[in-house]
Each structure stands twice: as structure tokens, then as C-alpha cells.
Amino acid sequence: MSSPKPAYDVILVGGGSAGCVLASRLTENAEVRVLLLEAGSARLPESVAHPPAWPSLVASEAAWGDSTVVQRASGAPVPLPRGRGLGGSSAINAMVFARGHRTSYDSWSAHGARGWTFDDLLPYFQRTETAVSGAPGRGTGGPLTVGPAQQPNEVLTACLDAAVEAGHRRAFDISGGLEEGFAPVDLNIVGGRRQSAADAYLAPALGRPNLDVVTGATAHRLLFEGRRCVGVEYGAGGRTHTAAAGREVVLTAGSIGSALILQRSGIGSEDDLRQAGVDVRHALPGVGRNLHDHPRANLVHQTRQPVPAASHNHGEILGLLRSTPAADGPDVQLIFIDIPLPNPVAPVRNGFTIGVSPMRPASRGSLRISSADPYAAPVIDPRYFTEEEDLRAVLSGIAAAREIARSPALAGWGIEEVAPGPAAADETSIADYARRYFGSYCHPVGTCMMGDDEVSVVDSALRVHGLDGLRVADASVIPAIPSNNTNATVYAIAERAADLLARS
Ligand SMILES: Cc1cc2nc3c(=O)[nH]c(=O)nc-3n(C[C@H](O)[C@H](O)[C@H](O)COP(=O)(O)OP(=O)(O)OC[C@H]3O[C@@H](n4cnc5c(N)ncnc54)[C@H](O)[C@@H]3O)c2cc1C
């Protein structure tokens, strides 16, 4: 083993959405010395910058290549991509930038998290962004420049018109967390190029003498003196290294990475750890529990009119709906996508897709290490659609999508629904299609849940229960998934974490 590196004040483990925010914000104070460790590379494929190319990235070196275990709903494993490299998932994602609807943060207090309502998060949402829409409640001076596509694909604009014809509300700012209905969503695209967390936050901080970034560095486990976390053991360049933290270690390795690092360090459910051959350092049964995600079913349409080539992120317009009038907020998202996604019925060369996703799924799964080996594949089981209400929400969304597709604004496009197709006319066959052929919307959260009960992992200040000098600050702390794509929420959590660290 090499000799320990000089101590840092804070070590951040994982250079994704949250890690880049924290590296940047913490080093604004020249007195704080920060080390950022990232398993992936600093040099990502050229196509990362080119928005329409993002679907190809999930099978590139910028992704980990994970899949779930076989899901009971579909009888098959489900690919669950996550980013690997500076920027993390923000470097390979679909660039939709949207807060959850304000109502979806209300349940964050259910396990005891205090001070994390939408109103509490609002200053941090605003701090992240310069929103070109200038909509009420949006930020004006943050590192991320966000706005809707200037000229959305014509087929998507027709879908928006069709949604309004079908009786849905035309929203002004569907990214702001205050509205329901349909509108162009803000995107992380600036001047035609992706703006990742590494672009917006990390790049401007890289010249600071108090920030070291080590890429190709996989955190193996955390180092302890008694109950205090004092550093990290990591692998880089074929060797094992250690780095010492004077104040804190902050896990920002994402919903999959952070829980796995805790488990490899002997922090987790005693059964899970013993099964993997890891000695129990600190029993914390919630680690890896509460894994949940947005599953998404796709309605694939063929059109007679040629759909113009994509020039943005493919999904420029979306809507938030309630599956039932009794819902206390929107719980279904429809996203209009300007390409026909692969489908199980018949190949489609020219067309578009309507993605339908339950935004507040009740199904909960788990994540665990398969062994103490830091390079072994994890056991990921989101248990999609194990709760019937998630299926009911999707069925309601599919009914809304079909009504929109029948509206006059889309008539001129010569539409035919190929998948599931007209044969899926009754609820049973539509439900069967959704269950068998859904995919992950790539929004896993919740594996290091915030709260103060026996299933929570971090407290309201993101400190790991029962240990000192250790926090988690990324998508894994989210107790219940917000009702929109997750990245904007992760940025806000990380901004708040930077504040919490600065004050401690
Ligand atoms: C394909 C895809 C499409 C998506 N589309 C959207 C979208 O359009 N809009 C949206 O809002 N959200 C989207 N998301 C989700 C969103 O990007 C994530 O919720 C968000 O980026 C999570 O941030 P994070 O900081 O928690 O984790 P990440 O950004 O994933 O960062 C974790 C980092 O930690 C590193 N790491 C992990 N383990 C270790 C280790 N042991 N040692 C060192 N480093 C480690 C990883 O390599 C990674 O860089 C998408 C995600 C994917 C994968």
C-alpha cells in the first residue's frame, strides 16, 4: 500500500451531479482543502456534448452498465444506466431539467426528515440555475443555464397542441414545481451543447489550489478511527491508496454507488453484510432499502408524414397529470419523444413515442453488495410494479396519451399506434404491455434515506446515523421520488449540503 496522502478537510466520493456541486461550492472558501475522487474518466466521448446522441451513451465507457435482477413484473432484468466519469449521470442523461411538483416533497417528512419541504428547498433550487424563462420563482444567477428548446421538433409541438385540444392545461413553466399540465420543459443545453455538472460547476473550480480531483479512482471502503470516519481507501492505476480527511467524508457516489460503499465498509443490514462476507462495523438496516425509480411504458407511433430529424434531447415537451381527481398532486408524467423507440410489436422507421410514467410510485426494492470485492456487480432489485397503484397510474396515463394521439392537431401526421397497438384495447392487455415492456426512466433514489427512524440512514443534516465525520449527499438520500425527472432535485440537495458543511 502507498503511504497516506496529506490530509484534506473534506473528501468527496463521486464526481457526478452532486459531487461537482459540492467540489465547487466548498472550495469557494480558500481555507477548505477538498479531494474529489471519481471512478470514471475526466475525458468522456465527444458525443456527450451532442444532445441528440445521448441514448448511445448508456452503452459507452461513460456508463457503468448495470442491470437489475429479473423483475417479477416483466420476467426479465431491466437495464439501469448510471453515469461514470466527471459529471456522472448528468453527463449521459437526457438533459430534462425540472423540479418535482411542490406537493411531491410533502412526504419527505414521513420518516422524520425536517426542513426539506419544497419551500425549504426553493432557495437552493434557485441557487443552481439561471432560468432563461424568467418565470416566477426561478433562479437568475446560478451556474446552470436552463431553458426550453427554442424550436421544438414540429411533431412534439403538434403533441402539445393535441394535449390542449384534449382538455389539458397549457402550463407556462412545467420545470418550476408550481404547475401541472403540458409545456416545453427546460433543458441542460447551452448553445446546442450539453451542460453537465462538470461543465457548469466543476470546470470553473478546477484551477483552485485547494481542490484536487483524482479520476480513475474507485472508492473501495471508508476508513475509521472508532466511530469517526477519517478517510477513504481507493484503487487507482492498479494500486491501492488511502486519503485522509480532517473534517468529513461525503459520499456523492449516487443512489447505487453510495449505498454500496457503506455496505463494503461494514455499514448496513447485518444479514446483507454477512451474506456478502463483510464484517459488521455499524448495523444500519436502512442502507440499500427503499430503492425506487420511475418505470416508463412507451406508446410508439408510426406517422405517414416524415418526422423532422432531432436537434435537441428528443424529449422537449412533457406534461404532469393526476391519475385520479383524489390525488393530492400530479402523479403521472407524459413525455413526447421525437423518435420511435424500439418496441416489441413491429419495427417503426418514422414516428414518435409517448412515454408514460408513474411519478410517485409506491413500489420499493433493495440494493446490496454481492461480495466484499469493490469491482463486483451489485444486486439491484427495484421491484417495479409490485404495488398495484403504480399500474393504475400508468393505465390512467396511457388512456390520456391515447386521447391526445386522437386529437385533431395530430391528424395531419397520419398516425398509427404500433405498440402496444389497437389489439391492446382492454385494461388487462394494456396492463400486460406496461408490465412486460416498461423500462427504467433512470431515476433511482432512496437507498440512504433521510429521516430519524430505524429505516433511515442519514439525519436531516445528511449525517450518517451513529457515526461521526460521514455524510451522504446525492440522490440516495431522497426519501420519496419527486414527481418529475430527478436531476434538478439532486442539484438542490447538493447546494443545501454545501451550506450544511460550511456551517458545521
Ligand atoms: C441515461 C440517464 C438519463 C437520465 N435522464 C434524466 C433527465 O433527462 N433529467 C433528469 O432530471 N434526470 C435524468 N437522469 C437522472 C439524473 O441524471 C440523476 O438523478 C442524477 O444525475 C444523480 O446524481 P447523483 O449525484 O446522485 O449521482 P451521479 O450523477 O450518478 O454521480 C455519481 C458519481 O459517483 C461515481 N462513483 C460511483 N461509485 C464510485 C466509487 N466507488 N468510487 C468513486 N466514484 C464512484 C460515479 O462514477 C458517478 O460519476 C438520467 C439518468 C440517466 C443515467
Automatic annotation (TrEMBL):
PROSITE patterns: GMC_OXRED_1, PROKAR_LIPOPROTEIN. Residues 83-106 form the Glucose-methanol-choline oxidoreductase N-terminal domain. Pfam families: GMC_oxred_C, GMC_oxred_N. Keywords: FAD, Flavoprotein. It comes from the Bacteria. Its cofactor is FAD. Belongs to the GMC oxidoreductase family. This is GMC family oxidoreductase N-terminal domain-containing protein. It comes from Actinacidiphila polyblastidii. The lineage of its organism: Bacteria, Bacillati, Actinomycetota, Actinomycetes, Kitasatosporales.
